Amino acid sequence: MSRILVPIDFSAQSIQAVRFALAYAKDKHELTLLHAIPPFPSRNVVRKLGQKSVEDFQLDEAREDLKKFLTIVEEAQVPYKLEIEFGEPHEVIAKHAKEEHAAIVMGTHGYGRMTGFLLQSVSYPTIHDVQIPVFLISEETDASRFPWKKVLVTVDGSEHAKEAAKKAIQMSKEIEGISFNLLTVVTPPVAYAGVYGVGWEDTGTLEDWGRETIRPYEELFEAEQIPFESKVVIGDPATMIRETAKEEAIDLIVLGHHGMGGIAGTLLGSVTFKTIHRTQTPLLIVKTS
User: Fold this and answer.
1) Which three-class secondary structure string do you get for 116-138?
2) Cis peptide bond prior to 227, omega within 30° of 0
3) How far, in Å, CA of 6 to CA of 103, rounded?
4) Cβ contacts of residue 225 below 8 Å, gap of 6+?
5) What SS3 class is residue 89?
């Protein structure tokens, strides 16, 4: 059995992430529940009480607060182990991600890009630091639809989008009743003057470009003999992804990520980070270097 890494704190988002991981792991994977304890914020307290005393107190507190998570996992009868470690959460997660885990499932607050950085988001640096696929689960997701039945694979003509599509197929093979939707979003040239160059005439031209973009991915699904539907839309990618997911009652959105760091992604208007913002549908982020 392979292992799924599930970083947990004490939030409602983490509870949803655990429920998602249990639904996906059932009879296929074991879980590693990982709780990272950040450095104690007050140096004066540490000096007065001593490092060991402070850490012992933090451990006791963590074990007590984690009992509700262990109860949920034990009731589901999915094999698991619990790891508690001191350190910056995203660094602890990245270290454990290298230990033969197939994927990470973690909760996200769904903050906007800059707000997320200001509030020290853990999910953004985790996506940057790890190489394995990352599921992001918000508190508002519908647990009755876990793990997933309808998958939206967003494609843009890039190699990382193709790798994301392949990973989505691979990770969905043992789930019954799966259906796939392929989506490509063409950004109107008016939004980025000069990007498309000579050749743009009207929306029909944009749709033709979109169909050309999506065709290699259709061939990928045809080769695997997997049923799918395709859709080409015009607009802002992150907005159209969220709207399509809602219209089609999608259970999982799959995105390829180019591996840029968080700040670079923010400055360049990364679709991945924009999609995370306020998206209630679970996300699967597949990173390529």
Assistant:
1) HHHCCCCHHHHHHHCCCCEEEEC
2) no
3) 9
4) none
5) helix
Verify that 128 and 156 share a domain, yes or no.
no
The answer to whether the CB of 153 falls within 8 A of the CB of 183 is yes
| Structure confidence at residue 150 (pLDDT) | 96
Q: Compute φ and ψ for 233, nearest 5 degrees.
A: -130, 160
| CA triple 283-287-289, angle to 5 deg | 165
What residues make up the domain containing 180?
Answer: 148-289
Report pLDDT for 287: 84
| Residues with pLDDT less than 70, the chain | 1, 40-52, 54, 110-120, 190-202, 259-270, 277-278, 289
pTM (predicted TM-score) = 0.86
* 170 and 129 in a common domain: no
- Residues 157, 104: one domain? no
Q: Are residues 104 and 63 in the same domain?
A: yes
pLDDT of 206 reads: 83
pLDDT at 96: 95
Would you state the structure tokens that stand for residue 153, as one six-digit string? 């694979």
* Under 8 Å between Cβ of 55 and 87: no
* Separation between Cα atoms, residue 108 and residue 136, nearest integer Å: 6
Q: What is the CATH number of the domain that holds 161?
A: 3.40.50.620
Same domain assignment for residues 82 and 198: no
